[in-house]
């Protein structure tokens, strides 16, 4: 039974509609990572001591709100607008997307993040591509907890925004997702970097050639995303039958 289900899931993951979803994820993730990493580079250009300047935190937080809201909105009706491997993982754990499709989403998101960082590196030759780092007073475990809590809030918001039982999503859904991401950056950006997105952390790390504390930006977000999906679907609002085309339930449109 399991091999048959896996084969069926793989078959749905190589259809023309599925490939359009992967392209949508690639484009939206590229736009998001380009904006977020680029805003950090712009802050360093205008403020040499950006690491200790509160205004640079505001710049990155506002960029997260604008870029993530836009990226989610443009891909929502095609791929669900995940823009984040943690969101995809949370959807897979909740049964809203098949495992093979989730893996293809991950590949699209990771490639997009690396490509966006490379474009910035090649274009802005006078600066290095910044990577996510944890504060000196933080441990890897503590930073993972912060990233997990922030990603939990993000993915829970994604579930709530895509729940059709709340009515049509419109523009409010992506805005809510962007706002929670921006709020999280303001809350924990100086401590863990406020990534919430393994692809964004991975892309900048690949381009910069440094993977220190990279596990922080995978372990915490993936655990937080899984808990958010399980809690929303099984405790707060039990999910409905999954859609056969995108692997998305009628209750949660992501």
Set out the fold topology.
Layout: H1 2-12, H2 16-46, H3 54-79, H4 85-93, H5 99-123, H6 140-161, H7 172-192, H8 198-208, H9 216-236
Helix pairs in contact: 2-3, 2-5, 3-7, 4-5, 4-9, 5-8, 6-7, 6-9
Plain-language structure description:
With 254 residues, the chain is mainly alpha-helical. Helix content is 70%, strand content 0%. It has 9 helices and no strands. Helix 3 (54-79) crosses helix 7 (172-192), helix 4 packs parallel to helix 9 and helix 5 crosses helix 8 (198-208). Residues 241-251 have low confidence and may be disordered.
Largest sheet: none
Q: How many helical stretches?
A: 9
Low-confidence stretches: 241-251
- Kindly provide the radius of gyration, computed on alpha-carbon positions and rounded to a whole number of angstroms: 18 Å
Mean pLDDT over the residues: 87
Shape: globular
Helix content: 55-70%
Order of SSEs, N→C?
HHHHHHHHH
């Amino acid at each position: 039974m399991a091999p048959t289900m896996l084969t069926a899931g793989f078959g749905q993951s190589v259809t023309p509609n599925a490939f359009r979803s992967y392209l949508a994820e690639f484009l939206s993730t590229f736009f998001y990572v380009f904006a977020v990493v680029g805003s950090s580079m712009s802050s360093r250009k205008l403020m040499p001591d950006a690491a200790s300047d509160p205004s640079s935190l505001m710049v990155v937080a506002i960029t997260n709100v604008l870029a993530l809201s836009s990226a989610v909105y443009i891909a929502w009706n095609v791929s669900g607008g995940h823009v984040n491997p943690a969101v995809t993982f949370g959807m897979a754990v909740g049964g809203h997307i098949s495992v093979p499709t989730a893996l293809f989403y991950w590949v699209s998101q990771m490639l997009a993040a690396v490509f966006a960082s490379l474009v910035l590196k090649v274009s802005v030759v006078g600066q290095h591509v910044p990577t996510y780092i944890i504060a000196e007073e933080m441990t890897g475990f503590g930073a993972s907890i912060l990233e997990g809590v922030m990603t939990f809030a993000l993915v829970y918001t994604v579930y709530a925004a895509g729940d059709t039982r709340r009515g049509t999503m419109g523009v409010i859904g992506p805005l809510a997702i962007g706002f929670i991401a921006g709020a999280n950056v303001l809350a924990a950006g100086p401590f863990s970097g406020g990534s919430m997105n393994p692809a964004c952390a991975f892309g900048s790390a690949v381009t910069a050639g440094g993977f220190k504390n990279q596990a922080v930006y995978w372990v915490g977000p993936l655990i937080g995303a899984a808990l958010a999906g399980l809690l929303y679907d099984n405790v707060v609002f039990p999910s409905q039958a999954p859609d056969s085309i995108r692997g998305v339930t009628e209750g949660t449109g992501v």
